[in-house]
Amino acid sequence: MLRRASHCASVVASAAIIGSVIIAADGAKAGEASLRHGDLQVDLAIAMMNGQGRELVLDPATGSVVSRLDWNFDRVVMARAGLAYNPLDWLTLGIKGATNLTDSSHMNDYDFNVSGCPTSADGGSLCESNHPDTVLQHAFLLDVSASTKLIDLGHFSAGPVVGYKWETYKWHANNGTSNYAGVFNDGLGISYDQWWETPYLGVSAEAEIGRFGLSARAIGSRWGEGRDRDLHHSRSLLFKETFDDVTMAAGDVNVTYRITGGDSYFTHGPLVPVACIIIAYLIYKRVGLPRGRTESSNR
């Protein structure tokens, strides 16, 4: 793959709870196990994440895309944990983190209108390679926030939220096929890392009707920062970039149903091992076991 003009990158991801058992009452979310003691609450969840990390190389003179790498992750199972503390009735301090348990991924690499590439349908040229044996080495997500209840009507509350997000992703692309060099069988070809961090502002709201609960949050920022690292192993080429003033917008909605009526984890503690077995079985049936990593992909 050719390099380097000006460079930019992005990550778009989405997560959905795939299965768990609620073992607590107040505030428990669907797909989560919630442990509450006084003003502290711990939430544990298993989630499914889909998304894409995109790496672009732009022509500095024209702004046109010279090269593009799409790092896709599909049906990646995530383990998520959160801690919330209510020092005051109207204030919630929270921290949430997540990491991947499986590594299913796929990378496609495109070079546009570059000399020596095969002719494309639009009359230009296109070098294309596909790497289905791509591994998401890690995905780490951290979110620290503080939210307040400016409106509190008992079963409905809403208010502003302020926080800080940090995320990092790492992929290894192994082997593959191309329209210009045939089959690649040289093991690890490209390693790619992304890091993102940003403070943010937003609004959040919660509503409760009987055993059903609804929570939503919308956040945004124009102060994000990012960096990436792109290593081509066969040619020993390393590229690094940094990004400032990155715009971020995100939102999430959770619909919950409270199964149990107890007030604490200890009321339903015996359900925990049962819940873990159910979660493990659902993960295995849906995505199978994580693929084994080769020696080259662990470098």
Order of helices and strands: EEEEEEEEEEEEH
Roughly what percent helix? under 10%
What gross morphology would you assign?
elongated
Q: Give the distance, in angstroms, between the N- and C-terminal Cα atoms.
A: 21 Å
Low-confidence stretches: 1-6, 14-31, 262-270, 291-299
Tally of strands? 12
Class by alpha and beta content: mainly beta
Mean pLDDT: 79
Describe the biggest sheet? 12 strands, antiparallel
Which strand-content bin applies to the residues?
A: over 45%
Rounded Rg: 22 Å
User: How many H/I helices?
Assistant: 1
Describe this structure in words.
- This protein has 299 residues and is mainly β.
- The protein is built from one helix and twelve strands.
- Strands 1, 2, 3, 4, 5, 6, 7, 8, 9, 10, 11 and 12 form a twelve-stranded antiparallel sheet that branches.
- β8 (151-152) and β9 form a beta hairpin.
- The longest helix has 17 residues, at 271-287.
- It is elongated.
- The two termini are 21 Å apart.
- The model is unreliable at 1-6, 14-31, 262-270 and 291-299 (pLDDT under 50).
